[in-house]
């Protein structure tokens, strides 16, 4: 059990909950040290509290644990719906404000998990300010699929989703709020987020709708019975329904190395979006509701419908081995390149795509740069940016990785085994908005990490003379579970393996992914 990470995970989680104050004893925030021009701030934009109909914890419980597990920013995203729209969105705000004052070294956003009309869920959050509650409340009451009874896949409901994103953009332009962002959550879980809907969200306001979860939360859900829930990672364990997009393959309802099919398939849906040359970023989050290994139960005599919340949790109950979640920062991280430690800088970094994600602390840092080949004095451009060069100029990709040096929260030091470079052509807007593959994207180079390597490693991939616009992204793995990708070994010879329902220990299959950067020739 210890070798598999199960004992360590359960012990740390249970110990932290048994004495909640102990969680804040030794916070680690390595990303605060500026590296390569930015502070790389780790965060989580998908977290539920007692103000969610299926939640348990107080806001401060999540903040304490997130702080202890090294997060710098986080978003409270209680479920949208009639009760939350009427009571919860206002009632949670004082708890958030109080936690902001108590934990000034964690940037705490208020948001909600939007029931997207005609589709799945999404994180919507705003920059703190005097109108944060008013805008969220108006948005939820006007555009939430549950509140508006707009869950069916109809053209009118799809249009309502687009209008909701446009509403958020208008609130920013009118300066009611300083900023707002949207990320689609667990996009492939039920197959109801069709490619044309995702493109419509992105195009409705690209300053607001900027990405989706590359890896869902609920990562403990795959741990085998009797030690865990025995489901799929992310609770991805379903199958197509009448509401699902009919062209999605059956494999899309599973995770691969803990990542969503839309992200994990090289040449798949995410790549088809990037091949259009338009930004669309990935994240990784906890989706924390009920924590694996915890002993919490909802407070007695709770009446959620009347009060918009459950009473404060009580502890000492049987350990929750059927729970599928980790505390924020315990397993999943979204690291954002920010100019400084501020709400605005985190949101700018997310919008710009200066983002990489990892599971289980697989790596400690990542610096990906594209530059003119051989020009060592030029730092080049980083994640989310575009390098413009004269046509035919040789270009190279430089990947620098800080290896894990300390035990993760399952009490072992992860070992990076391989790094893959993925490259694709930019072919312009898709003629068919429901396309979810792109033909030129593939793994173009794999680098093996020397066994026993310490500190950092550096790899250089020579792209060669650039005669067309391209994009590149990077991923890495501990190498424990790989297989040829769904589009064939010529596209992805050793990609993440499909997770097995009921037997998918997340600690034995760790990956990191970067967001892309672009290279565009001129002349």
| β-strand amount | 15-25%
Number of strands: 20
- Rg from alpha-carbon coordinates: 22 Å
Oligomeric organization of the protein chains: single chain
The dominant shape is: globular
The structure class reads alpha+beta
Give the count of helical stretches: 11
State the major sheet: 15 strands, mixed
- The level of helicity is 10-25%
The rounded distance between the terminal residues' Cα atoms is 59 Å
Q: Please tell me the overall pLDDT.
A: 94
Show unreliable segments: 1-26
Keywords: Signal
Pfam families: PHP
InterPro entries: PHP_dom (IPR004013), PHP_domain (IPR052018), Pol/His_phosphatase_N (IPR003141), Pol/histidinol_Pase-like (IPR016195)
GO molecular function, one term: 5'-3' DNA exonuclease activity
What does it look like?
- InterPro entries: PHP_dom, PHP_domain, Pol/His_phosphatase_N, Pol/histidinol_Pase-like.
- One of its GO terms (molecular function) is 5'-3' RNA exonuclease activity.
- This is Histidinol-phosphatase.
- Keywords: Signal.
- The chain has 523 residues and is α+β, with helices and mostly antiparallel strands.
- It is 21% helix and 25% strand.
- The protein is built from eleven helices and 20 strands.
- The strands form three sheets. It has a 15-stranded mixed sheet that branches.
- Strand 5, helix 7 and strand 6 form a beta-alpha-beta unit.
- The longest helix is centred in the N-terminal third of the chain and has 19 residues.
- It is globular.
- The N terminus is likely disordered.
């Amino acid at each position: 059990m210890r070798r598999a990470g199960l004992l360590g995970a359960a012990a740390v989680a249970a110990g932290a909950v048994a004495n909640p104050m102990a969680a804040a004893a030794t916070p680690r925030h390595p990303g605060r040290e500026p590296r390569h021009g930015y502070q790389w701030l780790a965060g989580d934009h998908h977290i539920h509290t007692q103000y969610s109909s299926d939640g348990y914890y107080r806001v401060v419980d999540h903040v304490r644990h997130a702080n202890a597990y090294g997060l710098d920013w986080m978003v409270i995203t209680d479920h949208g719906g009639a009760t939350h729209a009427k009571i919860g969105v206002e009632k949670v705000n004082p708890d958030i404000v109080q936690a902001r004052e108590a934990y000034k070294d964690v940037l705490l956003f208020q948001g909600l998990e939007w029931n997207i009309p005609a589709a799945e869920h999404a994180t919507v959050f705003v920059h703190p300010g005097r109108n944060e509650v008013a805008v969220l409340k108006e948005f939820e009451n006007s555009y939430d699929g549950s509140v508006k009874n707009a869950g069916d896949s109809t053209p009118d409901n799809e249009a309502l989703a687009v209008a909701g994103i446009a509403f958020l953009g208008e609130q920013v332009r009118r300066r009611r709020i300083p900023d707002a962002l949207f990320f689609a959550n667990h996009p492939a879980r039920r197959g109801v987020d069709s490619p044309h809907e995702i493109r419509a969200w992105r195009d409705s306001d690209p300053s607001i709708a900027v990405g989706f979860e590359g890896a869902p939360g609920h990562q403990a859900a795959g741990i085998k019975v009797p030690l865990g829930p025995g489901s799929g990672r992310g609770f991805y364990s379903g199958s197509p329904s009448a509401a699902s997009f009919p062209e999605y393959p059956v494999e899309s309802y599973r995770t691969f190395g803990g990542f969503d099919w839309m992200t994990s398939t090289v040449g798949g849906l995410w790549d088809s979006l990037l091949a259009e040359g338009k930004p669309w970023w990935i994240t990784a989050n906890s989706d924390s509701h009920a924590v694996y290994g915890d002993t919490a139960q909802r407070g007695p005599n709770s009446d959620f419908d009347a009060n918009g919340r459950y009473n404060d949790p009580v502890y000492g109950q049987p350990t929750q081995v059927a729970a599928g979640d980790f505390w924020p920062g315990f397993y999943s991280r979204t690291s954002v390149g920010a100019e400084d430690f501020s709400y605005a800088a985190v949101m700018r970094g997310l919008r710009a795509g200066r983002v990489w994600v990892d599971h289980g602390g697989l790596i400690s840092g990542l610096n990906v740069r594209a530059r003119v080949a051989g020009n060592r004095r030029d730092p080049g451009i980083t994640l989310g940016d575009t390098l413009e060069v004269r046509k035919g100029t040789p270009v190279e990709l430089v990947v620098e990785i800080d290896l894990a040096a300390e035990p993760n929260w399952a009490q072992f030091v992860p070992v990076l085994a391989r790094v893959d470079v993925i490259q694709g052509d930019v072919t312009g807007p898709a003629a068919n908005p429901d396309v979810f593959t792109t033909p030129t994207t593939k793994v173009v180079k794999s680098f093996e990490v020397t066994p026993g390597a310490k500190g950092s490693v550096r790899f250089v991939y020579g792209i060669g003379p650039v005669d067309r616009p391209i994009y590149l992204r990077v991923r890495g793995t501990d190498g424990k579970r790989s297989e040829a990708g769904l589009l064939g070994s010529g596209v992805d010879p050793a990609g993440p393996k499909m997770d097995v329902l009921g037997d998918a220990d997340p600690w034995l299959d760790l990956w990191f992914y970067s967001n892309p950067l672009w290279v565009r020739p001129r002349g």
